[in-house]
Amino acid sequence: MAYERVSTARQGASGLGLEAQCNAIDAFAAIRQAAILARFTEVESGKTPDRPELAKALHLARVTGAIPVIAKLDRLSRNAAFLLTLRDSGVKFIACDMPEANELTIGIMALVAQAEREAISRRTKEALAVARARGVKLGNPNGAEALRRAGKGGVALRAAVVANADRHAQDLAPVVEALRGEGVMTLRGIAAELNARGMRTRRGGAWAVSKVGNLLKRLGRSHEDKLN
What we know:
By secondary structure, the protein is mainly alpha-helical. The chain contains 9 helices and 4 strands; from the N terminus they run E-H-H-E-H-E-H-E-H-H-H-H-H. It has 2 domains: 2-110, Rossmann fold (3-Layer(aba) Sandwich); 155-227, no CATH class. The protein has helices at 9-14, 18-32, 52-64, 80-87, 103-133, 143-149, 155-181, 187-196, 209-227, and strands at residues 2-6, 39-43, 69-70, 94-95. Helix 4 (80-87) links the parallel strand 3 and strand 4. Helix 4 runs antiparallel to helix 5 and helix 8 crosses helix 9 (209-227). The two termini are 28 Å apart.
């Protein structure tokens, strides 16, 4: 299975880096004559440990035995503790840029990646401090307008979000059907049962009436698409 990550919403909207990752993983799979079982796309900061798409990829890996493939090791994170925890989780993964890496080399690369992240952060702060000292006004107050003029209105990001939401809804479809079979028909009742059973929204939150309504609408659209 493929796992791609871009670190900011702007990258997700523009597709910056995402296409290159997809191409690298597709080429790697072709060389290995392997099929891509599923594709998970995350738009998160590398500093964020809570990544719902990565969690779903790891879950699928555990239940199917499939191996998550990433384009580069630093696409997972530049945080050593996160990478080492992932390494020890029992799920094997492959980085296209280091396909023969073992646990020792991944551990070393994790430490190197974190050192790189800290160095980048330090250099950025130093550069900003120098710029402020010179009286430079930082930031672009018209950044969003500039993106709109450039035609980068978030199409790629919205497509990724919709695809991930559809996938999560399909995972929950059997649970919703089972609840309806038990006579739980109201939005409030379904929300209460999902929360009681430890089910979470795609973003890891608790279920509310509005979120259940959105889930049912998404499942209804998916059913209509299949009929059409």
